[in-house]
Amino acid sequence: MELQAIHDTLKAAGVVGLLGCDEPRPANKKEKDPGRAGMPFLLVDPAEIVPLLTACRDESRLQFDLLIDLTASDPAADGDDLWVLIQLLSLKYRHRLAIKAHLPKSALSIASATAVYRAANWHERECSEMFGITFEGHPDPRKILLPDDWKGFPLRKDYEFPTEYHGISCE
Amino acid sequence: MIQEQADAVLGHPVHPDSNVFVRILEWLPLPEIIPGWVVTFGGVMLGMSIFLAVMSVLVMFCVWLERKVSGHIQCRTGPMYAGGWHGWAQSLADGVKLLLKEDMIPKDADRTLFWIAPAIVLGSIFGAMVAFPLSYDWWFGRMDLGVFAILALSSTTTIGVVMAGWASASKWSLYGAMREAAQVVAYEIPLGLSLLAPLFVLGTFSLTEASAMQSGWFGMKWAIFTNPFLLPAFLIYVVAALAETKRAPFDLPEAESELVAGFMTEYSGIRWSFFFFEEYAAMLLMSVLGAFFWFGGFESPLTGALRASGMEDTSLVFSLVCFGTVLFKGFVGIFLMMWLRWTLPRVRIDQVMTMGYKYLTPLALFCVLGAASWEALQHLIFS
Amino acid sequence: MSILHQQRAFYGLLTLAILTSVGYGLVSHGAEGMAFGFFSSFTIAGSLMCIWERSVVRSAFSLMATFMGVAGLFLLLGSDFLAMAQILIYVGGILALILFGVMLTPPDLGERSLPRIGGTLVLVLGGASLVWKHVMDATESLAVLPVEELTPMTSQDQSVGLAFLHPEQYVVAFELAAFLLTVALVAAVYIARRRTADFEPEEAA
Amino acid sequence: MSNSTSNTPEKDHKSSYRAEERRTLSSGEEEFFFDVKTSDMEVNMGPQHPATHGVMRVLIRCDGELVTGSQVHLGYLHRCAEKIGENVEWLQYLPYTDRYDYLAAMNNNLGYSMAVEALMPGLEIPRRAVLLRTINVELNRIASHLVAYGTYGLDIGAITPFLYAFREREWIQALFEKICGARLTYSYIRIGGVFNDAPPGWLKEVGHFCDVFEEKWKEYRDLLALNHIFIKRTAHVGVIPKDMAIDFGLTGPMLRGSGVDFDLRRDMPYMAYGEAYEAGAFKVPVGSGEKGELGDSWDRFYVRVEEMMESIKLVRWCLGVIEDGPIIGEIPKVIKVPAGEAYVGIENPRGELGHYVHSDGGKVAVRCRVRGPSFTNIAVVEELMPGTLLADSVAIIGSTDIVIGETDR
């Protein structure tokens, strides 16, 4: 199923929090738009992420059984934008869904998806330590790849590389 | 009774009243002034060193053989360079390397026990090997109760292994030690019971007598051919012996993928090699024991032919042939054990326990009963 | 006096006692005396260590010295069968089981505060004098009947077996013991068996 | 130890462990049992341990041999691949992709190249390049599964199959060396195609390899996968039911071992796979619970063993249709990727390898996310371990076939 159709199906099922589709578009020289290549994303409201994922999983015409990936992206150091990205996959209908939710850097908090997909557990732990996002209701909010005492969030664009770690210089 | 019977079969007493030490001392031109106890003490020491040397060479050969066998099974060549011909000196070179390596003791280890454990392991297994006769004429320690002594002394290695595992202050070592204790205690029963079957047939604990009882049919009157219950008993013996010697598929105490190296995780250098010495010595022990009680011991068509040509049992050539025969049979057993090791995966601890207690022990009892009944039946029919 | 020093003093005294008895045996009765001194003092030293050691596991290990020493004494008396039975049953079986049970208990060092310096000295000195007295007694008895003149017990397996099966010797006791052990074994299995009916299988939950 | 000698039938030993746990936990009813309760022991398996296949640490809580709990600790091999992706040029990042799943570097190259190509709408990949990519990726899948086969044998205690498997892997590496000069980290598949054409006679040798391997494969299957002890050790161990596998987001052989018939190569085809599947070149092996129950370690293992054979058939098919032609599309020396974002997932030997790339039209990526299959697959281990024996926990970790370079990236 294409993204627009998925969007419509969700809308028909009465799911709230849908903010539209982010489709690729060709470059338009008149409006000085460089265009956007790649794949379409579904834009959603981060506050409604859990009911939305539940609907994606349970809706009989969608059946996204697998949460493939959950991560975030920080496009610019000076901006206030941070995007949470979720990839879903349906085993039955063999389609994918890419979800984007915008979070402002000033309030990095989103509900945990672990209750819907247990696969989200480790992905959220990684996302949390790398971007500083708090996942509300996560059962095990420890760091996963980084040491427990690591300072800062390495995958953020405004991350400053440490000059020393436990007295060991890394310059 | 059996002794007389065996003597009658061979035409001479099976226990000539002299051992290798005494022979050597008689042969040496010693002045009369030396007091008797010095001679005895010196004889024992000399004999012990000869014994240790012979057994160490045999064990080193086993190590080399293991590497060659595993190499060829795995489409490799194994050691090829040390010493020239097919890497014959590889074990020697390894030994030198291990001697020169640093001997580390973990900080939290119980130093005394850590130090004693390999000695107990090695001492008990070599103690058990003393019970082996080299031929009808040569032996190191006179044992009427050969099998009994071997079983008793080789069971002491467990204590050494448990000691090593506990003293290392490592949890993996402790696991290895516990597994060893559980496994050996479980398999001593089927091992002893499966040995009982040929003991009933041959009627003796002594290895020399057992061999003498099988000298007939031109050296082919092996126990295994005389009683149908001895074949299953032998199969049980093979399994139990593998478990006793901690060889794959029963190498749980040192299961390298689970417990790193089990009870010898923290050992290094020559002390570590002592455990390997024990393993190969135990393999030799078990194989030769099997050869004595199922496959004729010293007897083979070759000894049959020599005897037919009128050669004395006490002559040097005959003794050498006996020694060679029993070693050959032992090494066939060792090769079998190696073959199994490089083919089979490892079993799990509960499967080991289940097999030992639930299947092998009753089966071994059945074999003992069957073998004894068969003998009694034969006795009733033919006499 | 720290624990380490106590330990050193104890083992030093023990080694001295062993060496003394071995040396005395050697001087008075030659090789046999030496062997006797060695085995007997080893037996006593093992039992002393068993009392002295603060760690339960080390105590258990020291029992091995005792058992082996006793086995050696049997060997010295020309009784191979008893010696081997001693090793097989006590060292290979009972000691292994004791270790198995003891090893998983936590090391409680404070609990075993029995051996203090005074008690220790008494024990060690008493032990040493005991060793001494044993050596004296035994060597005297050996002197009465030297080992060479003992009738060698050939084929003990048969004599032991016959004794067990002979109607006028131990056959009743032997059979009774065997019966008792079988009953005990069956009862143990009955008590320890797992009652699968007591809890439902997982699928039902 | 009393736990080990259970008199329940061996085939449901796992459920009997579970039942026992519940029995000790529910203190309400007084049960009649004589199990001696010993103190629990916490054991560190790893970071340096033969069973963890790299520098991973598993903290195991044990009651004797019985595992009562476990916790996986990662990060010992974390090399910041995603951060590096934001700092090097598009093509410069390609060698870093070799390093995450170092046993299947070709597949990683392909995943990254395809993700970047998804951002370049006009780019067309020549057919010869597509087929060369497919051949190499499938050969690398065989090589990777051979390692999985060998090391799993090693975990279970069989050492010899490991050396046999590595002998065949060596041959594949020699083939790769001939085509790209590297034996482990290839960087062979580039954005837009492949960088080097097959040398003369190479395709023929690949065909020869297929012939030989087909014979050997039968031997290997009989030697390890159908060995009685091996089946006893792995069947009924670490059972992942279908819904659990889906819930944990497992992919690849882990998912198929649980009986879910899903393979990206067939169901969301890329490269030459759609065409090959229609031509009947390969099937998708799925676990069936043949020796134990559905989703146990043996099933997962056997799916990998069967996949090797399917890969051979795929390579054969590609060899049949490959013809001469260009090997790389029209791409400039310094690649400029149009603005946009894309997520592309491909079927790696261990599951779905996903790349999310975000470009703002510049020389470097804004975000380069790698979704490694091992990272997700290992998460299920914590769940499987309680109630098994220590030796089983090794079998379970081995059956997930993880590569630590990929979990930590």
Largest protein interface, residues of each chain? A-D, 43 and 44 residues
**How large is the radius of gyration of chain D?**
23 Å
- In sequence order, what are the helices and strands of chain B, one letter per element? HHHHHHHHHHHHHHH
**Structural class assignment of chain D:** alpha+beta
**Based on CA inertia axes, which overall geometry of chain D fits?**
globular
What share of residues are in beta strands of chain B? under 5%
Proportion of beta-strand residues of chain D = 5-15%
Approximate helicity band of chain B: 55-70%
Supply the number of structural domains of chain D. 1
- The number of helices of chain B is 15
Lay out the secondary structure:
The complex is a heterotetramer of chains A (171), B (383), C (205) and D (409).
Chain A: H1 3-12, E1 18-22, E2 37-38, E3 41-44, H2 49-58, E4 66-73, E5 81-89, E6 96-104, E7 109-111, H3 120-131, E8 134-136, E9 164-165, E10 168-169
Parallel strand pairs in A: 3-6, 7-8
Antiparallel strand pairs in A: 1-3, 4-5, 5-6, 9-10
Chain B: H1 2-10, H2 20-27, H3 36-73, H4 90-100, H5 111-129, H6 146-155, H7 157-167, H8 171-202, H9 207-213, H10 223-226, H11 230-244, H12 269-294, H13 301-308, H14 316-341, H15 349-382
Helix pairs in contact in B: 1-9, 2-3, 3-12, 3-14, 4-12, 5-6, 5-7, 5-12, 7-8, 8-11, 8-15, 11-12, 11-15, 12-14
Chain C: H1 3-52, H2 56-76, H3 80-103, H4 117-144, H5 156-165, H6 171-192
